[in-house]
Amino acid sequence: MPDPRMDKWANALVNYSVTVEPGQTVAISGGVEGEPLLRAIYRAVIKAGGFPIMLPSCTGLLADLLVHGNDAQFEFISPVERLVREQADVVITILADSNTKSLSGVDPARFAAYRKIRQPLFQTYMKRDADGSLDWTISLYPTNAHAQDADMATADYEEFVLAACKLNHDDPVAAWKAQAAEQDRLIEWLKGKSEVHFTGPGTDLTLSVAGRTWINADGRKNFPDGEIFTGPVEDSANGHVRFSYPVIEGGREISDIRLKFENGKVVDAQASKGEAYLIESLDTDPGARRIGEFAIGTNFDIQKFTRNILFDEKIGGTVHMALGMGYPATGNSNVSAIHWDMISDLRDGGQIEVDGQVMMKDGKLVV
Questions:
Q1: Euclidean distance between CA atoms 137 and 310, whole angstroms
Q2: pLDDT score, position 2
Q3: What is the pLDDT of residues 192-206, one digit of tens each?
Q4: Residue 65 covered by a domain
Q5: Are the CB atoms for 157 and 112 separated by under 8 Å?
Q6: Which residue segment(s) compose the domain that 111 sits in?
Q7: Given this model, what pLDDT does residue 1 score?
């Protein structure tokens, strides 16, 4: 018998995060560990009148390709990849890994080359998102591997995920609409403002958001969600920043990242762990050393770092920046094969000022 919690989750994804219309092609992809949720989504798409295409995957397949495949094999872009990026009306992705470190043995240069080859495809995906021809969302099914990353028992992690997604509410959609209204209020306050200055332990950075659009991330693209973000002016970042939490990328953990910016570009980068991988990634292409996204975390149901960016970048009282690819919808034009989100925790001595007015202090919104 279907798990009613999965149906509740699937309903929120299919009828709120995206809006599946009759006749739309809906690509549903995710790890086989998330089968209960994938099946519930499939049923929900059918009920909505869409044409579901199920694309289940096994953990470690990409690692097998990059380690054992020849250049021609990993440069090959399959018709399925093109379907998802270029043709599907709706894309629903469920993260459900049985081993989150499966890429840790892959040569970083090979992984970077793999991503670079797919950059034009990813740009198409982003442009379709910006022009409204694509609707997409991503969520995470609580597997043992994700729970272990978070240093939690699987049952406890499952409850954490459900709470973060507001699925413990009788009406999750109503709860997300309330979150959206609060974030609209913040965006309204930000309208017309230009300079962001944020400080914290090891951090003093300014950047310009003049003329840029702030996006309300309210459970539609990411589930869970809870952030407002924009794309800063590409050459505006100056100062230094020390990120509070490790970045988990390509199965590797890069810790204690410290970056120095001059006129929008990273001119010095250090890390206590994974520094070589950090530098190599920053050298992927010219856009990798510039900021594509600046965001403020507003989901105060998430207070714990879990080593998964889908949750961690939403922690209420934090900011995060992404090096690399910017979102065209924000007005940012930075192009790169990477998009690395890095988090600064402002809950202990941090502050955001916008045009000289304090917006957040010690992780609490004061506007």
A1: 11
A2: 61
A3: 999 999 999 999 999
A4: yes
A5: no
A6: 4-141
A7: 46
